[in-house]
Amino acid sequence: MVYLEEVEDRDLVREQPGPYEDDDEADYTDTDSSLSSAGDDFPSSLTSSETVLDRIYALKDMISPSTRRSITTTSSNIYSALKSTALVSGKGLYVLSTGGLMFFIPYMMVVMEEQQYVEMEREQKAKEMGSEIMGPGAQTGGVPGAKASL
User: Fold this and answer.
1) What is the DSSP string of 117-148?
2) I need a surface site. Which of 46, 91, 146, 150 has the fewest CB within 10 A?
């Protein structure tokens, strides 16, 4: 035959912390608890020893190795393509800019020289027109007996 004996649990018998019946401490609220602070999402023991990089690195176990390999391959291919595009476009820009300078500067000098010749011809024609308007025997420049130069 089996005899049952009741064993008291000491944790159930002892007094547990709970609300106070005293009026002074009934209005007390715990403002230091981790549940009441909005910015504390993680326990303080984890935040002091674990960085964000450690947490991100730990996420690699959630992704399968084949998926990680394909992500790595794709990202390295994109990086290589961007790098080669940047190098080629940089070299092309260098060639265009130096070639443009080599041809543009001499061209601008020739154009400016041509403009100077055109301006000199206009001044010469204006002098001729002015001397024709004054007449063939008119004095120019205040010097008596001087003729207009052609």
Assistant:
1) HHHHHHHHHHHHHHHHHH-TT---TT-TT---
2) 150
